[in-house]
Amino acid sequence: MAEMKEISPNASAGEKLLNWVDNRFPASKLYNEHLGQYYAPKNFNFWYIFGSLALLVLVIQIVTGIFLVMHYKPDAALAFASVEYIMRDVPWGWLVRYMHSTGASAFFIVVYLHMFRGLIYGSYRKPRELIWLFGCAIFLCLMAEAFMGYLLPWGQMSYWGAQVIVNLFAAIPFVGPDLALLIRGDYVVGDATLNRFFSFHVIAVPLVLLGLVAAHIIALHEVGSNNPDGVEIKSTKGKDGHPLDGIPFHPYYTVHDIFAVSMFLMVFTAIIFFAPEFGGYFLEYNNFIPADPLKTPAHIAPVWYFTPYYSMLRAITSEMMYALIACVAGAALFAVFKTRMPALFKAVIAGAAAVVAVLMLSIDAKFWGVVVMGGAVIILFFLPWLDYSPVKSIRYRPSWHKYLYGLFVIVFLILGYLGVQPPSPMGERVSQVGTLFYFGFFLLMPWWSKLGEAKAVPDRVTFAAH
Fold it and tell me: Tell me: the pLDDT tens digits for 386-437?
C-alpha cells in the first residue's frame, strides 16, 4: 500500500480535498505527467494544432450523438421520420443534427491534416512507430464509424450507398456471399442492417475508438512528441532533468490550442449556420429523400472523405489488371536481376509473381478493386518500415522531396474529386494513373527515400522567439 501524504492543518479546503483525492487516486500525478509537467518541443508550429482539434471534434461527436440517440428510431419504417422529427420538432434538434453531420466531415478534415503532418515531419519513425500504428487504427475505426452512421438517416444515398459497399464484400472469393449476408443480416439491406449498424455506430466502434485514442496519447507521452526538426529533445537535458529544448505543455501549448480551437469553432459554426450541407458534400441532397429500394439514384457515390478510395476501387477494370500484372512482373524482375540474393530466393520470387499474375487474371476485377481500396488504407500501417531516409523531417531532405509530397497531395485530391463525379472514360484513365502513383509512392519509398543528399540535422531544435 502506498504511503499516505500528509498536508498542513492550515491548508485551504481545496488543497485538503485534492490531497484526500491524491491519496486514493493519482489525479495530480496524471495531470503532471500528461499536461502540467509534460515537456513538449518549443518549436511546434501551425501543423501541431490538429491533434487537439481531433480530440475536440471527438467530444462534439459523442455529445451530439447522445442527444440524437434520445430521439432517433433504429427502425427502417421510422428512421427517416425520426430524423425529420429531430430537425423540425425537437427544440434545437436541427442544431444538434447539423453539428453531428458537420462534425463528421470536420473530423476527417483535421485527421487528414494531422496524418499529413506526421508524414512530412517523419512522426512515424523510430521510436514512434506504435503511435503511428494506433493512429492508423483510429483512422480505420473512423471510417467504419462514418460508414455505419451514414446509413442511419435512411435516405436514398444512405440506403444505396450501403447497398453498393456491402455488395463489394460479396466479391471476395469463397466467403464473399456469406460475409455480405452476415453484414446485412438479411438478403437485402433492410431493418436488420439498420439495427446492426446502429448498435455498432453507437456502442461497439466508439468504445474501440476511445480505447485507441487513449493508447495513442499514452504512447505519445511515453516517448515524447516529435517536432518540425525531427530532433529528439530528450537527448539534451538540463540539471533539473528536463529537456533544454522543451517547455511544459501547460500553460504554453494549452493557450496555443485554445486559440486554434477558437478559430476552428468560428469556421465550424459558420458552416453549421450558413451552409450545413456544404453544397451537397457534407449532406447530400438525395439523402433528404426517404430510402426507396425500387428507385435507384442516377449516380451513387460515398461522402467526400471516402471518395479517394472509391476512385481507386472504380479504377480497377479488366484493362487495369494488365497494368497491375506488368507492375508485379517488373518488380519481380527488378528483385531477380538487381538485388543480391541466393538463386533459390530468386526462383521463389519469380514463381510467386507468376502465381499472382494467374490469380489476377482468373479472379474478377471487382474483387481486386476491393483489395486495392482496402490496401490503400492498410499500406499506411507499414509506413514506418518503408521510409529509409537518413533524416526524419522534410526540412532536411532533398528539396525535390517537397515537390513529390506536394504531387502526392494533388493526386489524392484529384482522386477525391473524381470519386464524387459520375464515371467517364477520361475520369477512369486519370483515376488509374492516380492509383498507380498512390501505391508507387509507398511501395517505391524504400528506393526513392534514400536518393539525394540530405541536409545536416542540427543537434538541437531551431527556434526563434516570437
Answer: 999 999 999 999 999 999 999 999 999 999 999 988 888 899 999 999 999 9
> What is the mean predicted confidence (pLDDT) over 110-118?
96
Residue 49: strand, helix, or coil: helix
Burial of 303 (0-12, 13-18, 19+ CB in 10 A): buried
Nearest to 311 by CA among 171, 206, 439, 217: 439
Distance CA(237)–CA(396), nearest Å, equals 24
Residues near 76 by Cβ (< 8 Å), separated by ≥ 6? 154, 190, 191, 194, 291
Task: Work out the number of other CB atoms within 10 angstroms of the CB of residue 406.
Answer: 11
Q: Which residues are bridge partners to 290 per DSSP?
A: 155
Give this prediction's pTM. 0.92
What DSSP state is assigned to residue 364?
-
**Closest of 289, 79, 293, 74 to residue 187, by C-alpha:** 293
Q: H helices within 122-204, ranges in order?
A: 129-151, 156-169, 176-184, 191-199
* Cα–Cα distances in angstroms (integers) from residue 69 to residues 86, 123, 201, in the given order: 10, 37, 11
Grid cell digits, residue 453: 543528399
406: cell is 506536394
Partners of 155 in beta bridges: 290
Q: pLDDT, tens digit, for every residue of 348-398?
A: 777 777 777 777 667 777 788 888 999 999 999 999 999 999 999 999 999
